[in-house]
Amino acid sequence: MSWTDERVELLKKMWQEGQSASQIAKELGGVTRNAVIGKVHRLGLSNRVEGAPVTAAEPAPKPEPVAEAPRAPEPAPAPRPEPVAAARPAPQPAPAPEPRVEPAPAVVPSMRKQIVPAGQPLPPQPSLNEISPETLASVREVEKRSRKISLMELTERTCKWPIGDPATENFYFCGLPSQPGKPYCEAHVSVAFQPMSARRDRRR
DNA sequence: CCCTGATTCGC
DNA sequence: GCGAATCAGG
């Protein structure tokens, strides 16, 4: 494979979206992550735009011990507007993963009490329960940066949290790095596995 | 071990 | 220019 204009464009786009070199390589096909990284450097777009690291992937603060190049101002390349997730139909059903911690789930007695539905595209959930606003925000943030992978791409260590309506095209799995031994990424683990203590219902 | 990006250097 | 090998690190 060679670096055709199209491939370079996709590389640039993905790199600026914060995708990792390996993810980009997989997407492009025919190249390794090393090839991608090498190209990225040759293109001179090493330092990605600002914050946009994929959760686990650390931005790696590079103090740059001074190389040799005059390295001028180096204006940041115009961030391309990503057509990614526009307004989503906001479905909400979904195959419910089987979370649950050891303790008894203890059915919430009060059926009355519209608990915060936790936003729109919140799929699973053991039962109705509340999710802290912080966690919720975290989840939403993560879902924006999810890798949106397909069923076939799930591996031992990718988050298997479903996002979207399985009955539509708009369905995919989170795909971010899963917590060791867990089926989901950090953010999704936090909503999937909630200790009893955290779900104490505060009637009303 | 899994994964990241950074660098080097023969081709 | 390219990218495998290697390095450094989380």
UniProtKB/TrEMBL annotation:
Residues 72-82 have a biased composition (Pro residues). This is GcrA cell cycle regulator. It comes from Paenirhodobacter populi. Residues 44-109 are annotated as: Disordered. It holds the Pfam family GcrA. InterPro entries: GcrA (IPR011681). It comes from the Bacteria.
